[in-house]
Write a structure and sequence with these properties.
The complex is a heterodimer. Chain A is mainly α. In chain A, 74% of the residues lie in helices and 0% in strands. Chain A is built from seven helices and no strands. In chain A, helix 1 runs antiparallel to helix 2. The chains are: A mainly alpha, B mainly alpha. Chains A and B meet through helix 1, helix 2, helix 3, helix 4 and helix 5 of A and helix 1, helix 2 and helix 3 of B.
């Protein structure tokens, strides 16, 4: 077992442990903070897999933006600070059964399929996932999907604004009518 | 490094996300669990991109796209959650039954 493999296993344990805490903790705010730990450790896994740019984008967008958005959502819906007992619905056992079954089926399938394969991190080169490599691929081969994605972001922005606009503002033109 | 470890980690992370989506009741917590599932998919994409040594870097580029789409999804999802909260002062997903069939006592208490 190489040092990279050992580090990956440790980071994977952190990812899984904090992910379990996200879905089981009784504190709403703690769930968002454990999500930061989980996603940050996953960024470390990306670094070990030599995907540098993806790791930093993960830190910037997931840890930076998405978790802050989620915390805003929790605050705006008046999340209680202390522990709350009604965060889980009645079908916890059923959900645990489905999750264990999924993990069993997919885990056995995946491990049997790839158990002999190994990633040669040295041969894939130190430049495999740098910003220069990914940037060149993104703006040469994938520039059209990239542009389509910007249109999608614009549509999501407009949609969020339309959804969160208050009703009374929307109704004002009718109120000045006859 | 053996390919089995990242693949197994992705599978387990996905299962944790499934548990969260099914067992949680607060809509924001359900959104967090969806993020966990998306991250499991991202880990798979990066892993197989590095394993196959793709010269076009399809996997990593698609991961960047998925991260962007996840950000847009969280923005829209939270707008919808806030709208629900404004209308009925709670965001428990198992109490949003207006589109379900009426089942006696379970029938929604809220009428527009």
């Amino acid at each position: 077992m190489t040092i990279v493999e050992l580090l990956f296993l440790l980071l994977g344990a952190v990812v899984l442990g904090s992910a379990l805490l996200v879905v089981t903790t009784r504190h709403l705010i703690h769930a968002a903070l454990w999500l930061v730990v989980s996603l940050g450790a996953l960024a470390g896994c990306y670094l070990l897999l030599s995907a540098e740019l993806v790791a930093w984008v993960q830190v910037l967008i997931y840890v930076g933006a998405v978790v802050v958005l989620l915390l805003f959502g929790l605050m705006l819906t008046r999340a209680p600070i202390g522990p709350s007992d009604d965060l889980d619905s009645g079908n916890r056992l059923l959900a645990a059964g489905v999750a264990v079954a999924t993990a069993g089926v997919l885990g056995v399938l995946v491990v049997r399929a790839v158990k002999d394969a190994s990633i040669d991190l040295e041969a894939s080169g130190a430049r495999a996932g740098t910003a220069a490599e990914i940037g060149a691929a993104l703006f040469r081969s994938w520039v059209l999907p990239f542009e389509v994605l910007s249109v999608l972001l614009l549509a999501a922005l407009v949609g969020a604004i339309v959804l969160s606009r208050r009703e009374d503002e929307a109704l004002q033109p009718d109120q000045v009518g006859p | 490094m053996s390919l089995a470890w990242p693949a197994l980690l992705a599978v387990l992370l996905f299962s944790v996300g499934i548990y969260g989506v099914l067992a949680r009741r607060n809509a924001v917590l359900v959104l967090m669990s969806v993020e966990l599932m998306l991250n499991a998919v991202n880990l798979n994409l990066v892993t197989f991109d590095v394993w196959l040594r793709d010269t076009l870097h399809t996997g990593q580029v698609l991961t960047l796209f998925v991260i962007t789409i996840a950000a847009a999804e969280v923005g829209l999802g939270l707008a919808i959650v806030l709208l629900v909260y404004r209308n009925r002062s709670n965001i428990d997903v198992d109490r949003l039954r207006d589109l379900g069939e009426e089942t006696g006592a379970e029938a929604s208490q809220w009428r527009p």
